[in-house]
Design a protein that fits this description.
This protein is of the alpha+beta class and about 675 residues long. It is built from twelve helices and 43 strands. A hairpin with a 5-residue loop joins strand 25 and strand 26.
Length: about 675
């Protein structure tokens, strides 16, 4: 050994002695399996950047996304002998799988211990392989999504003197039957976190341990193998031997990060505040700034490694050591992660440089239903509707339950309402949240399920912690939209017809509807109204040609407010005459609708040979009544009724085949007619 290396070794050992309490050193002497840092013997073997028995591969060729800790998991990996309390294994086994890496010779002992502690054995699986230590986080597999297939990325573990640990990703890939890729970057899982949306983070330890590889080359490896396009490499505020990011930071969601906090009197205070401010200034994958939460981690004894917790599905486990700050740590996570069950796991074996997270690793759900969505957040300009689109990707390859694909939204924290999403193409669906007044806060989440039994929300926790945005801007109330912009009708004399005029894009205007000149043949169903931003109103126009001679009649519908007038021209052409209210040649007939297919409205025409009671309704393909359009006495003649594609509740119906049904049999004519109506959005 050269003199320089001996000096470095002595200095490192002095740091170790300063960093750890006497009981930890004693534990390691009694059980080398527990040594997180390099032992004396391991340090003698350690050469940064030295070659090792590792097989690199070409990167995957599909669309790569590394899965995050806070998305759907099918289980948790641990090594036996355990580095975690049995309480954790018991809790995990109640709702997810526990994958235990254990030698075949020790499996019986492991199973007996599990049974004696009340572990649910139905959720336990065993991977027979030897290990050097229990630091599953550091050497365990990294999971990726490769075009909807879960695969594993291996890397050279930064403890070269633990070759058995270094083989575990290979063993897990073989056990799970998934593809394995080898990324030739020396690393450790405790010094890495990702958001599941192409952003990762580590301390600069990754640069120190790869002296022959540039930062740009490391970035390229991470993009090629893991899909990481933005890799945050920062200083280590903990100032300890380990330099692992999970000792002071943790992604809680795509746009949430928990950072440790120390007292102002601590010499590391400025460094902790630096990394907290650094993340607060960074843009998340969702386009907003990271929300930075803090948990008090002063260190010392009892230890406070509160960022070293484990998120598994809708629960998060936080290490507890008997410190006076234990309860405060749980509260910090409850505030940061509403809807999650926050569970403290006590052990006198937790340390400030390692704890629960270091000794476990999640297994990504190979059959998960993944929802890809770029949420509306922050402030959104006022609109009549807000478009929510998402891709639903069932890794199970099972079909989606399309009626389960919904957007749930609330207004200013009120009760949730739901909208079924409409298919666009491929995996893509959309829904429209109705526009709301300026200043309104809208919260929403997306839900879906597939035939494999998987269901998912976006964001993951759903209703307790939805995406939220606030409506801003100034609506332009003068921009009134009228549909249609004019009316041109041709009718027989002595007949009636109803047309619908839809008003929208109105911002709190008091409107007055009037007819520009005497036109006894036209009437409106209301004379004034006040509509709010985002509202729409349907005005019914009744045309009645009773007693009118064959001719063309003109008038204007005038809509006025305190600023301007909107004029809708009306042209009515009366053809023929009707003697004795009996139209020669006309039959009781449902003529049909035009246009067909239609979007957003269509006009349904029918004729009556004699005055009669008429019911005209819309039914869906299941035979369920959607809307009653007409149920009243009508004169003989030609009639028209408009349907705007909405049901009895005023909600837009989905694309599909519907049926218009005309029934006049209650007056003794014994007549029913049905026509197909197609709505195509």
């Amino acid at each position: 050994m050269n003199k320089k290396k001996l000096i470095i070794l002595i200095f490192a050992l002095l740091l170790i002695n300063m960093a750890f309490a006497k009981d930890y050193s004693e534990q390691i002497r009694q059980n080398p399996f527990a040594a997180h840092f390099l032992s004396f013997e391991e340090y003698l073997q350690y050469e940064p950047g030295a070659s090792r028995d590792f097989t690199p591969t070409d990167p995957p060729t599909g669309n790569i996304r590394q899965t995050s800790e806070f998305e759907q998991m099918e289980g948790v990996l641990v090594a036996y002998p355990l580095g975690v309390p049995y309480d954790l294994i018991v809790e995990l086994s109640e709702y997810t799988k526990v994958y235990t890496v254990v030698t075949s010779g020790q499996q019986t002992s492991c199973e007996n211990n599990y049974i004696n502690h009340g572990v649910n054995m139905a959720n336990c699986e065993f991977i027979n392989a030897p290990t050097n230590s229990w630091w599953m986080r550091d050497y365990g597999p990294w999971f990726i999504d490769n075009d909807g297939e879960i695969a594993i990325v291996d890397f050279p573990y930064n403890r070269p003197s633990r070759p058995l640990d270094d083989e575990i990703p290979i063993e897990v890939a073989n056990y799970l039957g998934v593809d394995l890729y080898g990324m030739d970057v020396i690393h450790t899982g405790g010094n890495y976190m990702c958001d599941g949306n192409y952003i990762g983070a580590s301390t600069d330890l990754v640069y120190e341990e790869n002296p022959g590889t540039s930062a740009a080359e490391i970035d390229e490896y991470f993009e090629d193998f893991l899909g990481i396009t933005e890799y945050h490499v920062t200083l280590d505020p903990l100032d300890d031997y380990i330099k692992h990011i999970d000792c002071w930071g943790k992604f809680l969601d795509v746009d949430k990060v928990m950072i440790g906090q120390v007292p102002e009197t601590d010499y590391r205070y400025d460094d902790f505040e630096f990394v907290a401010n650094y993340f607060a200034d960074q843009t998340s994958a969702w386009g907003n700034l990271f929300q930075v939460y803090r948990v008090y981690t002063p260190g010392g004894y009892p230890s406070t490694p509160y960022t070293n917790g484990l998120i598994t599905n809708n629960k998060i486990f936080i290490p507890q050591s008997g410190s006076q700050w234990d309860d405060e740590a749980l509260t910090s996570y409850e505030e940061a992660m509403p809807g999650y069950e926050v569970i403290g796991i006590y052990s006198n074996g937790w340390y400030n440089t390692d704890a629960l997270h270091c000794r476990t690793r999640n297994v990504a759900d190979r059959g998960m239903l993944y929802i890809e969505h770029n949420p509306l957040l922050g402030e959104q300009d006022y609109a009549n509707e807000f478009t929510i689109s998402a891709e639903f990707k069932p890794y199970s390859n099972e079909s989606l339950y399309t009626d389960s694909l919904k957007v749930f939204y609330n207004i200013d924290g009120g009760d949730y309402e739901s909208i079924t999403m409409t298919f666009i193409s491929g995996d893509l669906y959309y829904a429209m949240i109705p526009g709301q007044p300026v200043g309104t806060e809208i919260g929403y989440y997306i839900h879906g399920a597939d035939e494999s039994g998987h269901s998912m929300n976006h964001p993951y926790i759903g209703a307790p912690d939805p995406h939220t945005f606030t409506v801003v801007g100034t609506p332009q109330p003068a921009e009134l939209t009228v549909d249609p912009e004019s009316f041109t009708l041709e009718m027989q004399t002595n007949t009636t017809a109803i047309e619908i005029m839809t008003l929208s894009n109105i911002g709190g205007i008091d409107l007055i509807y009037d007819i520009s000149e005497t036109a006894d043949w036209l009437s409106l169903n209301e004379a004034s109204g006040i509509l709010q931003p985002g509202d729409s109103d349907e005005i019914e126009l009744l045309f009645d040609t009773t007693g009118l001679a064959a001719d063309t009649y003109l008038c204007d519908i005038v809509i006025t407010d305190d600023r301007e007038e909107t004029i809708i021209p009306v042209e009515l052409t009366v053809i023929g005459t009707n003697a004795d209210n009996n139209l020669g040649g006309l039959q009781n007939e449902l003529i049909g609708n035009y246009p067909n297919p239609f979007n957003p409205s269509t006009t349904i025409s029918f004729s009556l040979q004699n005055d009669n009671m008429v019911e005209l309704s819309i039914y869906n393909s299941k035979g369920q009544k959607v809307k009653t359009l007409l149920n009243e006495q009508r004169r003989a003649g030609l009639h028209q009724v408009q349907w705007n594609g909405r049901d009895e509740n005023g909600s837009s119906v989905s694309s599909g085949i519907y049926f218009s049904v005309m029934d006049t049999n209650r007056e003794g004519l014994d007549f029913t007619s049905i026509k197909k109506v197609i709505l195509l959005k």
